[in-house]
Amino acid sequence: MQPLKLSLLAGAAMALAACSNHPAGTTAMVTTEQLQGSAWQVNTVNGSEVGDALVTLNFHEPGRLAGKAACNNYMASYTLEDDSFTVKTGGVTMMACPQPLMKLEQQFLDALEGVNQADLSEDGQLILSGADDVRIQASRQK
After folding, report:
1. Is the pLDDT reported for residue 130 higher than 70?
2. Taking burial as the number of CB atoms within 10 A of a residue's CB, which of 27, 61, 99, 138 is the most buried?
3. Which of 44, 135, 50 shows the shortest CA–CA distance to 100?
4. How far apart are CA 31 and CA 68, in angstroms?
5. What values do phi and psi take at 40, rounded to 5?
6. Are 93 and 73 in contact (CB under 8 A)?
7. What percentage of the chain carries pLDDT values higher than 90?
């Protein structure tokens, strides 16, 4: 009798997981509390490693986001709702940098504007994603 109950429970859990619109290996939408704290270091933008460039996300207060975008500092606002996460970039400083950093910065800022989902992976990575393969992956700065 016990194995049957476990099998039914496991089947129900798998069925519920299959109905989720979140990527495999992630949890539900993040909360404001999970975003805040130490800054997030961006590791990849749309599948490309950022290398040694400093690209950060700092959710310093609810609805506010700031950080380093490879070359310049940026400020943005964000909206976190039950099933969506959107970012609206605001000001960006205007320093000139080497072309590869300028290109990465533009890719990052464009990707940030295209985000519509924010999840935490099982290993604590922040995954910001959107349409057209937009994906920003970040980990907490230490």
Report:
1. yes
2. 138
3. 50
4. 22
5. -100, 130
6. yes
7. 72
For residues 94 and 71, what is the distance between their CA atoms, to the nearest angstrom?
A: 9
Exposure string for 25-38, b = 16+ CB within 10 A, e = fewer = ebeebbeeeebeee
Q: Which helix (H) or strand (E) holds 104?
A: helix 99-113
Residue recorded with tokens 């300028």: 102
Q: Say how far apart CA 140 and CA 124 lie, in whole Å.
A: 8
Coarse DSSP helix, strand, coil percentages of the chain, rounded to the nearest 5 percent = 25, 40, 30
Which tokens in the block code for residue 83? Answer: 């099933």
* Domains observed in the chain: 25-140 (2.40.128.270)
pTM for this predicted structure: 0.79
Residues composing the chain: 142
